[in-house]
Amino acid sequence: MGVTARGVQTSSAQKAAFGILAVISFCHLLNDLVQSLIPSIYPILKSSYALSFGQLGLMTLAYQLTASLLQPFIGLYTDRRPKPYSLPAGVGFTLAGLLLLSAAHTFTLLVVAAALVGMGSAVFHPESSRVARMVSRGQHGLAQSIFQLGGTAGAALGPLLAAWIV
Prior knowledge:
Shape: elongated
Oligomer: single chain
CATH architecture: Up-down Bundle
Strand content: under 5%
Mean pLDDT: 90
Low-confidence stretches: none
CATH class: Mainly Alpha
Number of domains: 1
């Protein structure tokens, strides 16, 4: 039973680890899909709200500042104090941004919505990357590549989804 049971246990552990990696990679796909939707709908926002290119640039700035500049600080904080709940919190920020974007009546609300979507990304990425590494079972490069594949696929699918919806 020792060798067989151990082999089965290892196989079970590997399947569980791969399952977690697959789920976190799919979540990365969804996160980055939503991130790429905002620039994809700029033409609609420009005409619907009579925005200038400068205003669209400010929306991009709000998104990029929150998504990019907050991320290292959140990563530093969660490295010291892991926060598994930050995964759903990141998704929550993104959802709040999307809901606000769908109901926004002013340019200011559009900027806040873009910033919330960026915050969602900033909160999601450090913890999800940590989870991908944690379940890698020593194959850090492979796990990171699979995780990254999810994000890249999401970024590619976002504009297609926007085109299909619109």
